[in-house]
Amino acid sequence: MMARPVLEALIPPPQSVQTGVGAFVLPANAVIRVPAEEAALVQTAAYLADCAHLQARITLQVMPDASASQIALRCDPALADLGAEGYRLTIDESGIVIAAPQDVGVFWGVQTLLQLLSLAGVQDEQVTLPICQIDDQPRYPWRGMMLDVARHFFPTEVVEGLMDLLALYKFNRLHLHLSDDQGWRIEIKSWPKLTTTGGSSAVDGDKGGFYTQEEYARLVAYAQARQITIVPEIDMPGHTNAALASYPELNCDGQAPDLYTGTEVGFSTLCVDKPVTYQFLEDVIGELAALTPGPYFHVGGDEAKSTPMEDYRRFMAEVLPIVAWHGKQLVGWQEIANCPLLPGSIVQYWTHQSEMAALPPDVKLLMSPAEHAYLDMQYHTDSPLGLHWAGYVSVEDSYNWDPAAYLPDIPAEQIIGVEAPLWTETLRTKADIEFMLFPRLLGISEIAWASPARRDFAAYSQRLAAHGSLLASWGINFYRAPQVPWMEDV
Ligand code: TNX
């Protein structure tokens, strides 16, 4: 039987696909073989079996060191040319092999196989796959999404479900915007009122919430099992009303403001002149850094409109060494480029402002241009959710841009990757966030992973149509954009 043309439907498209003649039929209860001594691969094999069951509805079984198998996972140093995250997926008459120079590459190869299984579909309890060899590696090392859990809070189950999908589309960073004017969302044991007071509010008086340290640790572990690095953000010195409302001493006048449930920005600031501000930040950064195995700490730094530039620089001159002292690499919104930064710091571009002109060559740039990558922007003028300060971002707008060409004065090598932020002023539920993310997030995955030569909107819309059926079968509330030739079952 002919395999359906599933290879053309992979998102993101692999770097190279060679097809052969014929097909391999994967039976139910097929065996996944892994070297028993390689713990990371055993974990990946179990992940494959779990997801094959949930996503593609086929049962596979993991048998470390099995003598015979239909699927084999292995590390192979001879494939070093595929790069740190690359992999080779081979399907021939005898079965499926995913090999990679490092286990992270095997994990991405597994995501490709999961897509192939879901796209091909189970018939008579088996899946027919095309004979092929796929060699693949990402364009950028940072392929991220940001979730704002401060304007509205989302419990761990929602974030975990999102991480399953991020992994499937080969994202490897989840940036959590953990604090803002409207809410503080991470327990800090030395400053408990941050969550008991600051965590109680949300936009429009909606229900607040926060992650206990134990819950945050579980999110980190869940991410690690999916090769995703959590990037925690505590926004400062602005976007801090929730902290200021929790502790009067953080305010220059010693008076705690009320909790805030509106959506204005730029009115709050930590008190730059008070020593207690830096004790507070030492404690917050220290506790959160200790809970975060990933190497990054995001200090926000955006829209500090109530902090004069001179104060902003003095403030950051105190804070940046705290981040470094806790062993973390700095990430900040682009305004941070107004301050001297250590080499290797990461500046996150979001909108047209002047800071980029002065970007030193030894800092890295993370690209999140609002007019393409802000997934909280409305799709069009009648979209029921979202904002439009950066314009309307259609599925095509979010796809048709190139991070390396976007800022003409920045050398391509300075760009570390791409991140799609989801701000949640207007988003209250899991269904709301799904509607804004999907399908645009899939386009961002292509921008972050695939080479520009492999990208083209017409071909992408065809791929998206196939993925629409999958998203629908998984119960995801995605936007059926009219430019995409969705199939009947979505
Ligand atoms: C700007 S982007 C902000 C956020 C808002 C967002 C809404 C950035 C660094 N700051 O505070 O939520 O616009 O799109």
Q: Would you count the extended β strands for me?
A: 17
**Number of continuous helical runs:** 14
State the shape: globular
How big is the Rg?
23 Å
Uncertain residue ranges:
none
Arrangement of strands in the largest sheet: 8-9-12-13-14-15-16-17
User: What percentage of residues falls in helices of 4 or more residues?
Assistant: 25-40%
Describe this entry's structure for a reader.
The protein is of the alpha/beta class. Helix content is 31%, strand content 20%. It has 14 helices and 17 strands. It has helices spanning 39-56, 103-120, 156-168, 193-196, 213-224, 241-246, 275-291, 309-325, 370-373, 395-399, 403-406, 430-437, 440-449, 457-473; strands at residues 16-27, 30-33, 60-62, 71-75, 87-92, 95-100, 126-136, 142-148, 173-177, 179-180, 183-184, 229-236, 296-300, 329-333, 346-349, 364-367, 415-422. The strands form three sheets. The protein has an eight-stranded parallel beta barrel, surrounded by five helices. A seven-stranded mixed sheet has the order 1-7-5-6-4-2-3, with helices on one face. Strands 10-11 form a two-stranded antiparallel sheet. Helix 3 links the parallel strand 8 and strand 9 (173-177). Helix 1 runs parallel beside helix 2 and helix 7 crosses helix 8. The longest helix is centred in the N-terminal third of the chain and has 18 residues, at 39-56. The chain is globular. The two termini are 26 Å apart. The mean pLDDT is 96. Residues 265, 302-303, 333, 350, 374, 376, 387, 423, 425 line the site of ligand TNX.
